[in-house]
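# nightly structure sweep
# worker-07 picked up a monomer target from the shared queue
# config: single-sequence mode, recycle default, output format = structure tokens
# input follows
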Amino acid sequence: MGKKTVFMIGVKESFIIRVLVKKLCDAGMDAGFVKAGVNTINAALVGHEDAQLIYYLETDERIPRDILNYLKDKMTDEGRQFILVGDQKDNSKVLDSISGDLIYKAFNRPVNNEEFVNSVSEFFGKLEAGEFRKSVLIVDDDPSYMGLVREWLKTEYKVAMAVSGLQALKWLGKNSADLILLDHEMPVTSGPQVLEMLRSDPDTANIPVIFLTGKGDKESVMQVVALKPEGYFLKTIEREELLNNLRNFFKTGKCM
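# output follows
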């Protein structure tokens, strides 16, 4: 990642915004003001797709619904979070209307400038480390195919691999996943058996599971569908089709 870019979004470029922008610039970041609006934010992000967004709320202001929906979609699609600055009561209203996973930190006025700058710097460190990416666990007894899928996904997701259902369950005992891509036909413990075990454990029952398998016969499909996974892809799927399906899944909760 090159020079870190930060956009402060607000209805007007107030004195406090100019102070915060200067503090970020003094810390070596490329910071600037963007007037609140979906079109203006989109225009600012052209060529600066990795920029960190900070929304500055004026007193008694609510983020307009179109901008809020835009931020929700953008943060969800990219596995990102934005920063909020405002009065405590105004920040609380926003936090009540949006998933906490989409807000990296909310700063209540008056802002501690040093803490603010340090938090923005910390955010970029976590971004570079991939901490905001969705986590995908691939479970497949074929290391070659599993490695191929990992190569497809690793630029957008944190990817872990397990060569058996038991290894996957052991990994999940110490780690979390936002999605499991599960093979159907595996020795010892089959994919459907693994799914049943996942669903029966409260700690893993709500992890989405999509089958990624070579078995497309009617009997196998019906067996899997009865267990109600979130999706079922054949291994003949191409890279872009798989990526598009996963992007859509993380955005809508449904496979295309």
